[in-house]
From TrEMBL:
Residues 141-339 form the JmjC domain. Belongs to the JARID1 histone demethylase family. This is JmjC domain-containing protein. Gene3D superfamilies: Jelly Rolls (2.60.120.10). It comes from Urochloa decumbens. It comes from the Eukaryota. The lineage of its organism: Eukaryota, Viridiplantae, Streptophyta, Embryophyta, Tracheophyta.
Length: 364
């Protein structure tokens, strides 16, 4: 079974024109880059060459050059002045890893799925906390609300970007279900997950760094059930003195999530990860791409992605994403069939890798 699945990984990448370099083949990994376009595609070309086959695409800054946000948002004062009286949802973690695995607070040798502590603060205070984020101090702030927030709590600046992406809307036959604004710094990292949306991701300031795996490589991420937990703020002190602790959800629930950390912090952790998850670390290198300020990434639905970021000159990484509801067609059926295939390397552990719900979904 494993040999057949590995052949599927290679064939699917070849059909997408992305190649299957080994983890140690840096030159080949660089060559198997996500396609880039100097100009936005026509709706027909986008549908034919990217949506239908499920192939990512990066579009140059020509796609957003007309946005007022392209020049206004990277400045030091525009967003703070415009949103001065606006309360926003700020996600707080001790280490910048929200919706990710963390040591279980009662059984440190085990893992749990940890969600951020969310606090409503005025926008200028939110920016101050984001800029001052420091894992060494136990507090990292990220504006990453997941509820169409650009058209909600950030409505005062929503007109600075397009309400939708015209060539994508025409090709996909619908308008975006949600448009979100993300503001963070280099300390915020998004763990491997997938979404049931076609995603158009536009960076306005700084850069976003993606590790990508096609849906066919589901088994490589060792998706297992983890008990859910959330960070809470301990009483006392102002925002600057907030201390966070992890508590288990009550009533308890389980969350299917990727077990793999592709960027361990130490050689010892890398060795432990590689030993525990050989399908990831011994398989083809993940597809890497960087989306720079002004550029757009089309990320097809069901693609697994891990995201880190670098701030711009203003000390912030700012992005907007458009979520288009995916088509639950024959490709989704094939994915569920593939997910139902079990072999020993990825089925051991606390929970089965074969979850019938909607696992590893998150925003970036």
């Amino acid at each position: 079974m494993e040999r057949a699945v590995r052949e599927l990984w290679a064939e699917s990448r070849d059909l997408l024109g992305l190649g299957s370099p080994s983890p140690d083949d840096t030159a080949a990994a660089t060559a198997s880059a996500v396609p880039r376009a100097d100009l936005p595609p026509t709706p027909l070309a986008f549908l034919r060459d990217h949506v239908s086959p499920g192939r990512p695409l990066i579009v140059s800054a020509a796609a957003t050059r007309h946005w007022p946000a392209a020049t206004l948002w990277p400045t030091d004062s525009y967003l703070t002045d415009t949103l001065r009286s606006t309360a926003v949802s700020l996600h707080l973690t001790p280490d910048g890893r929200a919706d990710a695995l963390a040591p279980h607070p009662r059984r440190p040798s085990s893992k749990c799925f940890a969600s951020a502590h969310v606090r409503r603060v005025d926008f200028p205070a939110a920016i101050e906390l984001i800029r001052g984020s420091d894992p060494a101090a136990g507090l990292v702030a990220y504006a990453q609300q997941q509820d169409d927030c650009l058209r909600g709590e950030y409505a005062a600046v929503a007109g600075d970007v397009d309400a939708h992406v015209p060539w994508a809307s025409e090709a996909l036959g619908c308008l975006p279900e949600a448009v979100n604004l993300w503001i963070g710094n280099a300390h915020s990292v998004t763990s491997f997950h997938k979404d049931h949306y076609d995603n158009i991701y536009a960076v306005v300031s700084g850069e976003k760094h993606f590790l990508l795996l096609p849906p066919t490589e589901h088994h490589r991420l060792y998706v297992r059930d983890y008990p859910a937990a959330h960070y809470v703020a301990e009483e006392g002190g102002e925002h600057q003195q907030l201390r966070l602790k992890l508590e288990m959800d009550e009533p308890g629930r389980m969350v299917p999530w990727s077990s793999v950390d592709p960027c361990p912090a130490s050689p010892e952790e890398m060795a432990a990860q590689a030993a525990a998850f050989p399908l990831y670390f011994d398989g083809p290198a993940p597809i890497r791409c960087t989306v720079r300020a002004g550029e757009m990434l089309y990320l097809p639905s069901m693609w697994f992605h891990h995201v880190s970021q670098s701030p711009g000159p203003n000390g912030l990484t700012i992005a907007v994403n458009y979520w288009y509801d995916m088509q639950f067609d024959i490709k989704y059926t094939y994915f569920n069939f593939l997910r139902s295939l079990e072999f020993d390397d990825c089925s051991s552990g606390k929970a089965d890798a074969l979850e019938e719900g909607d696992p590893e979904e998150k925003n970036d």
